[in-house]
Amino acid sequence: MEETSLLRQSMCRAKGGAPGFKVAILGAAGGIGQPLAMLMKMNPLVSVLHLYDVVNTPGVTADLSHMNTSAVVKGFVGQAQLDNALTGMDLVIIPAGVPRKPGMTRDDLFNINAGIVRTLCEGVARCCPNALVTLISNPVNSTVPIAAEVFKKAGTYNPRRLLGVTTLDVVRANTFVAEVLGLDPRDVNVPVVGGHAGVTILPLLSQVKPPSSFTPEEVAYLTDRIQNGGTEVVEAKAGTGSATLSMAYAAAQFADACLRGLRGDAGIVECSYVASQVTELPFFASKVRLGRGGVEEIMPLGPLNEFERSGLEKAKKELAESIHKGVSFIKS
Ligand SMILES: NC(=O)C1=CN([C@@H]2O[C@H](COP(=O)(O)OP(=O)(O)OC[C@H]3O[C@@H](n4cnc5c(N)ncnc54)[C@H](O)[C@@H]3O)[C@@H](O)[C@H]2O)C=CC1
Ligand SMILES: O=C([O-])CC(=O)C(=O)O
């Protein structure tokens, strides 16, 4: 088998390396990882796609490698192959870790996922310390501070290159607001700030584009639905996992924005949970401008109405605890 595939490879005429970025997905065989890997295989900005997981990447890799798009896919399985999966990468996307079941909060995932994120980020620090790292694994409000502490310990921390993925909150907000307004969701943009769990997810409905006004009932309905969108999916999946397909879509959209930023495109703005001075907290999600260096600029929150100011106070209280928990996990 081995010989046949070597023979087959040797029969192929060498192709010059296609221009583009090298991207690794860690947790690539999972519910998010597989559709995300497919979407990244379809992205023309990607020249090399490394799929790493502790199980099942050979099959996922064989399957995706038959797609006639230009990215070259390679699979890596098990911790012994982590360093090879990461070496030379420009962008590392991390959806590794366990998902919620009904009745759990994202914070209930901390005990398992914190250790997974630490191990993977130690690999990033060793093998591709200059890569952009986008973290999906929950609880994002704590896993991003964990990653920052791992990188600080390794002496490789660059706050501009570590981003928590909160795009799904924006994707949901755009969808739900468009439903209420009777618009196409592609024409709606809702900034969602704060973090990625419950009350820390703060949609700024006063800043919706196109400019729109909402009744107090609509604001209450939309805020609740956006904050609990993840739970809506967890309950509907009834114990088999959380959002995977919409998350893969959101992560692929965010990764594409990161790659366009790295390429030097102008005016790329996305919401993301990053090291921030927008509030007194060390991490906060808000609109950020992406560029060659990663996060080039963090946008101010803009004017908030009274409902949003009160939501911000609640968000900050919970965020402070989640950040502290993540930092302490590495420091203690
Ligand atoms: N940021 C966000 O908006 C969202 C985050 N999530 C989170 O994403 C994570 C993954 O969710 P799913 O893909 O649905 O879970 P899943 O269980 O389907 O897949 C997770 C994958 O991670 C792999 N994995 C476990 N330990 C690993 C390790 N040490 N190294 C590499 N891979 C490892 C597993 O083998 C599995 O293939 C969960 O923590 C979930 O809560 C989910 C939806 C949205
Ligand atoms: O709700 C969950 O556990 C997964 C998640 O983060 C989301 O769907 O927003």
Would you mind describing this structure in some detail?
With 332 residues, this protein is α/β, with parallel strands linked by helices. It folds into two domains: 17-165, Rossmann fold; 166-331, Lactate dehydrogenase/glycoside hydrolase, family 4, C-terminal (L-2-Hydroxyisocaproate Dehydrogenase, Chain A, domain 2, Alpha-Beta Complex). Helices cover 44% and strands 18% of the residues. The protein has eleven helices and eleven strands. It has helices spanning 2-10, 33-41, 57-65, 82-86, 110-127, 140-154, 167-181, 216-227, 229-237, 245-263, 306-331; strands spanning 21-26, 46-53, 72-77, 91-94, 132-135, 162-164, 192-194, 201-203, 268-275, 283-291, 294-298. A six-stranded parallel β-sheet has the order 3-2-1-4-5-6, with helices on both faces. Helix 2 (33-41) packs across helix 10, helix 5 runs parallel beside helix 6 (140-154) and helix 6 crosses helix 11 (306-331). The longest helix has 26 residues, at 306-331. It is globular, with a radius of gyration of 20 Å. The mean pLDDT is 96. 1,4-dihydronicotinamide adenine dinucleotide binds at residues 26-27, 29-33, 53-55, 95-100, 109, 113, 116, 119-120, 136-138, 140, 165, 168, 196, 241-244, 247.
